Amino acid sequence: xxxxxxxxxxxxxxxxxxxxxxxxxxxxxxxAFAYKEAGQWVKVSHxxxxxxxxKARSGFLALGIQRGDRVGLLSExxxxxxxxxxxxxxxxxxxxPIYGTSTGAQIAYIINDAGAETLVLSNQKQFDKxxxxxxxxxQLKFIVTFDPVTITKPLPSRVKVMTFEELAxxxxxxxxxxxxxxxxxxxxxxxxxxxxxxxxxxxxxxxVMLTHDNLTFNLVANVERLTDLGPEDIALSYLPLSHVxxxxxxxxxxxxGVSMYFAESVDTVAQxxxxxxxxxxxxxxxxxxxxxxxxxxxxxxxxxxxxxxFTWALQTGREYSRAKCRGEVPPLLSLQYDIAHALVLSKIxxxxxxxxxxxxxxxxxxxxxxxxxxxxMGLSILEGYGLTETSPVITSNTKAENRPGxxxxxxxxxxxxxxxxxxxxxxxxxxxxxxxNKPDKTAEVLTADGWFCTGDIGELDADGFLRITDRKKDLFxxxxxxxxxxxxxxxxxxxxxxxxxxxxxxxxxKFPGALIVPTPSTLENLAREAGITSASLAQQLEHPKxxxxxxxxxxxxxPHLAQWEKIKNIALLExxxxxxxxxxxxxxxxxxxxxxxxYKDKIxxxxxxxxxxxx
Length: 615
Fold this sequence. Notes:
By secondary structure, this protein is an alpha/beta fold. Among the domains are: 23-187, Rossmann fold (3-Layer(aba) Sandwich); 475-614, 2-Layer Sandwich (GMP Synthetase, Chain A, domain 3), CATH 3.30.300.30. Strand 14 (381-386) and strand 15 form a beta hairpin. Helix 2 crosses helix 3 (79-89), helix 11 (285-302) packs antiparallel against helix 12 and helix 12 (304-326) packs across helix 14 (368-376). It starts with 15 loop residues before the first helix and ends with a helix. It catalyses: a long-chain fatty acid + ATP + CoA = a long-chain fatty acyl-CoA + AMP + diphosphate.
């Protein structure tokens, strides 16, 4: 069946179903989507995508999925994720995304809380996790798998397992000519579109109820901001679609006609970036930190005059970007920047992302210094701000108005204000309906007049740009009664090429300390200089010369901190904090309570050395 031949949908969409129908009708690209298979990029046209959505929708309807039914979706990023998402919405159903990193117990909790009778999942790994927890999901009736799986142990007779292809065949009974019209009629703006369970840094996850109006309002408002997006653009997608940030990006880009290329994995992002040379891309601060660390490492390795030129160019770029933001670029600095850009900075950009229009950053705070360095290279990072509960974008920077260190101005139709205690409040059509089955939790964050309490501390500057200080619940108080905001300090520490991760600790203690994960190459060099290469990793991390180097690095990076904020002592960790080990959320936020418990001995050691406390 041919798609993309009907008249364009002139009005703005009011549901995600309308948005995807409009995208299919208005665009006819051969690479609407693409994914890697057997080392080659496989391109999927809008017409082929629509046909696969139609078949999946028919299959779900044949399975008995009805309007308002909740369906679990457990998968890594892949084309089938988006096909399933759109197919379920086209049934009037509510999809319930589950992170691919979830454990069996977490899967069972979400399926039970959502009341889902069907679970769609990707592969054998995800199937095994779900199968092992099948006894904890008594209402589950169907499991649909993208890849064929092997059932290694008997499942309850109530559970039927089928492949995605079998699902499509089951429902494929002819080709309705009005499929897109049926799709448009499947939902109304007030209908629930998705239940997204917040990963959370504490407690059980809560199911955030987002309507079609919530998500479509955010889609349209972002399209208005990103005026230069169009069918000529290519995006590389790697952030989890289970998170509302990347999912909204997907909605915005597909509606705008942007080609969506799925990265093979997080580990292949750099390689895929070079292969397809995208014009737009979303990411999280951790990736930008890694890119900059790699750039600086290569600059140091160049040696001699090349290293000196590189260091000068990067510093000149930083100063130029900061001066440009202030609107005060001295003529000499402008000339120096032109030279630095021509000799060094432009070459770095051409190596990393020669065609990029902009990067979008979200999920966590981006260090201001990183934004300035990328800007100097001609790589704009547009930082925004939002939460799952706000569909998600509240504010964002744009290419025309990009102020590093802030998260931009509110979207059209979004209200924000700062409460007396500094908490950011927001109101508008982007705010969730509430937490599923948790009216008490909903009442804690939604006021009677519609303001959502974000839990973030921030401030608005004179021009209306929002600056985030920290999470309200992350603030801690020293035993001396001084409040510490850990995130800004951590972001500063992570700008060091010698530091992979940093977590500021010290709740109820005499002073703030820090847990630091050292850069492996730096640790290797320090061990060689100290003559301890044969020592164990744990012994290297506790060697006085290694610790002194990192104490000095912390002091070098934080001279501007108030006395009570200064890091007085540190401990070095052997391994990076990870999602898999439960130390980070799927959006790479630190689970501070977990870290405090897991590394209690390390933290106690920080405060067991009184020498540090009195220096």
